[in-house]
Specification:
The chain is α+β, with helices and mostly antiparallel strands. It has 2 domains: 28 residues; 143 residues, Immunoglobulin-like (Sandwich), CATH 2.60.40. Helix content is 15%, strand content 34%. The strands form 3 sheets. Strands 1-2-9-4-7 form a 5-stranded antiparallel sheet, with no helix packed on it. A 3-stranded antiparallel sheet has the order 8-3-10, with no helix packed on it. The protein is elongated and about 95 Å long. It starts with a helix and ends in a 6-residue tail after the last strand.
């Protein structure tokens, strides 16, 4: 009798132990939690604008020229303006062309020279215009017409400022008979790159 009662007692105690454990596990998720949060802070961000604009004063571009001979040149003026609200880190002129010996020969083919004037260029004549700078002339480089070149010290790096540019294309005197009767179409594209990113 005592043996049966002891066994029953062990079973009851064992059951109570299991129930106690289950109750303890269940109790883990029932405690209270205090929370707090700060007052909202509003921050407004506005992205900047990177924009350049090209105008063509006086004699226009596109320009079509025929009968170009070795030693001949063609000049046109362009005004490049930074009409965005942010400074630029660099400005480049990229020139592409249709396939022709006029532009595929980097030595004897068309050469491009770029210059700027501190004031708008003065045009003389209309049929075959020439230009003079009433201020200070700054050469910006020369070489084969096709390619990508930077514009060092461009005024248009600054918002609201402009570059008064003169583009001159020349067929070198070294061009031989292979260049006769050739045609090429050049496309000029100016590109501006944003300033270096900063921590604000």
């Amino acid at each position: 009798m005592s043996t049966r009662r002891a066994a029953t007692t062990r079973k009851v105690l064992g059951s109570l132990a299991v129930l106690g454990t289950a109750a303890a596990v269940a109790g883990l998720g029932t405690f209270g939690t205090f929370t707090d949060s700060t007052t909202p802070v509003t921050t407004q961000l506005t992205s900047g604008t990177v924009s350049i604009d090209l105008t063509r004063p006086a004699a226009p571009i596109p320009a079509t020229t025929t009968g170009l001979l070795p030693g001949d040149s063609l000049s046109r003026t362009l005004t490049l303006t930074n009409d965005g609200d942010n400074p630029l880190s660099s400005v480049h002129l990229g020139v592409t062309a249709t396939t022709s010996i006029l532009t595929s020969d980097p030595v004897n083919g068309l050469q491009l020279a770029l210059a700027s004037c501190s004031a708008p260029w003065t045009q003389h004549g209309t049929t075959t215009p020439t230009y003079t700078c009433p201020g200070t002339t700054t050469p910006l480089g020369s070489g084969p017409a096709v390619g990508n070149r930077g514009i060092p010290g461009a005024a248009s790096l600054t918002p609201g400022a402009a570059d008064n540019l003169l583009v001159t294309l020349t067929l070198p005197t070294s061009a031989d008979n292979r260049f006769q009767g050739q045609t090429s179409t050049l496309t000029l594209t100016f590109s501006g790159v944003q300033r270096t990113a900063t921590t604000r």
